[in-house]
Amino acid sequence: MILHRRELHGKLNDRGGESPRWLRKPFASWAFNGDTSSVKRHNAKKESGSTRAPPADFLKALEMEAPTGSVRTSLAMDNHWLSSFIPRLSDLRVRLLPHEYAFGLFLALTWGRLVAHVGLTNPLSLAFLGYLVASTAVILWSGREPAPWRWRVRLLLYPALMGLSFYMIPSVVAALGTPQVDALLVKWDSAWLGKNINLAIQGWEPPLLTDALMLAYVFFFYYLIAGPAYYCIRDLPRFRQCFAGLFVVYALGFIGYTFFPAGGPHRFLKFDQPLTGGWITRVAKPVLDYASNGVDAFPSIHVAITMYLLVFDRWFYRRRFWRLLIPCVALWVSTVYLRYHYCVDVIAGVAIAGVGLWVATLYGRSRLKTCVSVKSANAAMIAQADPN
Questions:
Q1: What is residue 29's DSSP assignment?
Q2: Helices (DSSP H) in the chain: which residue ranges?
Q3: What is the pLDDT of residue 385?
Q4: Tag placement on the chain: N or C end, fewer CB within 10 Å?
Q5: pLDDT of 147-203, one tens digit each?
Q6: Which among 238, 250, 369, 267 has a CA at the least distance from the CA of 308?
Q7: pTM, entire model
């Protein structure tokens, strides 16, 4: 099936939109479902010396903003039209990714609550407004020329916003006057399990086991960086899918921090015996306590993020999934054993990880499927255009 310029022009007019200038220029056709007639016409022109091969990164750039729906697999056209199409990808509507909606909601919600409590000119209000403006500006900037490196900048903005927001949340909680809910979480734990597990296991904490679980807890930071980095370097569409769910998880977790701030068992509960461990625990625990923002118990981001990344690897990087399965399970146990989280925090972490995976699945079915098909068509075009 071929969708010609006149048909696409008519579809846009039917929707009440004006066709961009690139659509009114002559071109061969938009090809679907493996149709290579346009590619063959291009190859014939190339052999006659009337055109040159299309740039290798053309479809890679196109996949970022190519229309979805009827456009399925590939785009093939005369080379004289390419130079006019590429700069005009900005004429297409900029599409927000799921995590941009979700994290934007967290930023906007927090900003609105701060404005209502402390005013528009408060430094906290201005900071969260600045985060909103910065994210909007980067999205629009990358949408004008959606080259791969611009996409990576757009995606990697969110780890920066996450880090800045994380350490401002205690000030936000204080400004909003939100009380800590540790007592409520202990009550939920006791109602569910009949007792508080953190208190029940004190005294049964061999130093060697404590050190091993402390290493597992610190493993979170490795996986948080190395997990998405693999996709960032090797597979940009998959990296987008990974972040689409990952920062939905972070958005839900941070909203939980601002509405249900809690310090965790090691700050709230009174233990008869201190946590015993070897030199690893003595070195790592003060660093982890200092790195915490003091209100980051509910939900457990450690559980949520590692579970999300592990399942994502189960889908797309099976070999790493099997390598990291045991460290992740040990990490989940360590969150309660090391007195950083209540059991209810772990349950909430599992729940928001499930939401993130659901979002990533929906995104993959709706958008990444088209992107992968276009990448395959790109490889076929280059192979036919330059057999050597």
A1: B
A2: 5-14, 37-48, 58-65, 79-85, 98-118, 123-144, 148-176, 182-193, 197-200, 207-234, 236-259, 265-268, 279-291, 301-316, 318-337, 343-363, 369-385
A3: 53
A4: C
A5: 999 999 999 999 999 999 999 999 999 999 999 999 999 999 999 888 889 988 888
A6: 250
A7: 0.74
